[in-house]
Every structure is written in C-alpha cells, then in structure tokens.
Amino acid sequence: MQHKYIVSSVIGVLIVFLFYQSIFSFSTASAQNDNANSTIAGINITVDKELDIQALLASEIQQWKEQPLIVQGQSAIVEVPTQYIQFDITETVGKYMQAIKNPWYKPWAKVPGVHIPLDVTLSDELKTAFINAPLFNVDETIEAIREHASELKTTPVVAEEISFSKDMMKRVSFEIQEIHGNSAKLSSLATELNETTIMAGETFSFLNTFNDDLILRDEESVNFFASVLYSVVLQAYTSIQERHSQHNIPNYLQPGIEVEVSERLQRDFAFENEGQSPMIFVASVENGRLLIELYALENNLDISYSVKKIEVKPRTIYRLSPDLQVGEEKVLQNGSSGYRVAVYKKIADQASYEAEQQISRDFYPPQHRIVLVSSKEELEDTAEIENEEQGSNIEANKDSNHNTIDDKQDKDNDGVKDSTSNKEVKYDKGGNIITDQEE
Description:
Blueprint: H1 2-34, E1 39-40, E2 43-44, H2 50-65, E3 69-72, E4 77-80, E5 85-87, H3 89-100, E6 115-116, E7 120-122, H4 138-150, E8 157-158, E9 170-178, H5 183-193, E10 197-198, E11 203-205, H6 206-209, H7 213-216, H8 219-233, E12 238-242, E13 270-273, E14 279-286, E15 289-296, E16 301-312, E17 316-321, E18 329-333, E19 338-349, E20 354-364, E21 369-374, E22 383-387, E23 392-396, E24 426-427, E25 433-434
C-alpha cells in the first residue's frame, strides 16, 4: 500500500513538472514572438539567440563608427574620434535577454516590446578633443555624447556651452581711418555692425547685413566702410568669398584694400569665418574717425596681409592749339602713376608653420599728362598730336616718315594712343596693353 502511494506521488510530480514545462516553453516562445518589435539602440531585433543578436549589434556598431561623429555648438564644431567610444555588447545583450523573459510566477503572461540602449564606455582622452572649443561645457557635452552613442544616432551631437561675450575674447585685428563720406550714415553702419557675431563656418554678406536702401545709395560712404571692414577681416582667420575693386586709388588705405559695394550692380562683399570659434565685431565713429575691431578666442595664429605693387608711369600727350605762340606750352592735366597691385595674406603659428596666399590682383591705370602746344611750332620729328580745334588726331610728318616723338618721356612708358594706328590702347585686367595680334 505504501509502495503504491509512493509510485502515485512520483507520477503526480512528473505530471505537474511536464505540464509546467510545456506551459513555460509555450510562454517563452510566445514572448519571443511577441517581442519581434523589440529594439536595442533603435535596431530591430529579429533573431532569438544571444550570439546572433551580438553579431547583429556588432555589425551595426561597425557601420556607425565609420561615419564621423560631429559635436556642434554655436561657438565651435568638433569632430570626435570614434575610437574614444567603446560598446559592451555582451552586457547589453545579457540585459536584453533578461528583459524579454517572463517571470517564473507568470509563465503565461505576455511580455511587451523591449527597448534598451547600448552599454557605452567613454575614454578619458575624449576631453582632449575639446581643446579648441573652450566654450563647451565638457562634462555635460560628454554625457550628451554617451546618450548619442548609446542609441547610435547619426545626427550631430548638440554641445552644451557656456555663454560668451567680447570680454572673454582677444582683439585679433582692427582698423581706424579718418572719415570719408557722410558721418551720419557711417555712424548708422557702425551701429548696425557693432556686436555682430559671426559663428564658426558662417558667411557674412555686406548687402544682406546692411539693407537700408537710403544708406546703400551713398556709394562713397558705403565703399569707405566696406574697405575698412575688408582691412580688418584680412587680418583674421577668414576666407574672402566676394570682393570688387573700385579701380581707382582712394585717399584712404592702400591700393588693393579698397572695396566697391553696389546694390544696383549686385556687387557684394562677403567672407566666411574659417575658425573654430565665433567672431564679434565692435564698431564706432568718434572724433571724425571710423574704428572697426574684431574679437575672437585666443589662438596661436599670427595673421597679416601685405600689398605688393608695381608702378606704371604715365605718358605725355601733346595737343595742338593755334592760340599759343611758338615754344609756349600749357599743361591741361598733370600726370600720375598707376599701379599693378597684388594682395597677399600670411598665416603663421608659434611653431614653424607659415603660409602665404594671394588674395587679389588689381590694376589702377595711370593718369596721363596732357600738354597744349602751339600749332605754329615747326616740329623736328613727327608726333601724334591731338588737334584741339578739330578734336581729332593729326600726324605731323617729316620726310614722309611715320616716326613718332617719344613725348619727352621714356618710350617704354604706357600710353593711351597707338602711335601708328591712332587707335585707343586697351588694357587687360592685369594692366597690360592689348596689341592688335592679341585682339
């Protein structure tokens, strides 16, 4: 009797055990099927085995690391090396498998979809990536990177920054000039520019920044202001996107540094901040002078510009007049030299690095000297002379030869007339005379 009881008990236990196992197996399989929408770092988990899940995650992480990780703030843009970021795939998958299991006391329960991030470890060396971004709050930015990596996000990381102002920066360049133009309009331009911030990678456009049509129509004031601004940005870590020459030598700054801006002709002055930090302008008009300053975070670069010019001497042009006595002369226009000008930008650091780049080339034609002489004068040589009364050119010939006077100047000087064809001489953009063969 006792033997039968023992056998019955064992059989009962086996039946209960088998029933429990069947229910547990069913619920586990059901949970795995119901968790088809579960994700790790936004990756849909479509496999069941741990090793398969690990392989899936490893492949996705490898693809993510092949793309640059950009940390972007208002003051700087930094690319972070992905080798500073390590992922614990085993730990992550272990947490996932634990999360999708049903509790032992609810083998029949339906487990909802599971969504977990990757386990991420960041190297201490990551902080070195932000040396050139002093306005970043490093600790908070690193936490933002951790969260970003744990979800394998591909958008730029938004950096946490401290507020910045001119007082935190160093003056990297400035220019001060006596006012040329309308003082009130220049003051308005200075007020508009004052405390303007140009972020890293941002482009400044003169016409987009100053849109007062009344002021923009005052070409003298606008060109003077833009020229002073050009001198300032040439001494900073910028690249010139658009600049037009006035083609006349102004009585301020150097040739090659002047700028023409015209809303009507759509001639803009534009430059890009190539640095990794913002720039702030300070501008004012005081005591008849315009001052423009540029502030930026301190760096080890020394930036300057130089102007190299070649003089182009004027020629002398003679005109005939019957009203003058023989030997009498009258200067109608004094001559002045022109220039071929090239502007160079030099960038050097505290080490041995040094680079020089050509920014622009301009030609400023000379103003030729014009002298009125008597038409009664007997010429010893032929000369190309403009008759004042007829308004045309007359060649005075001797012995039927077509030799020309050197105009009391060096024959190599540039001129305005071709002495043999009476055609106007044309200059190319570099200031060279275009010959008939070149035309």
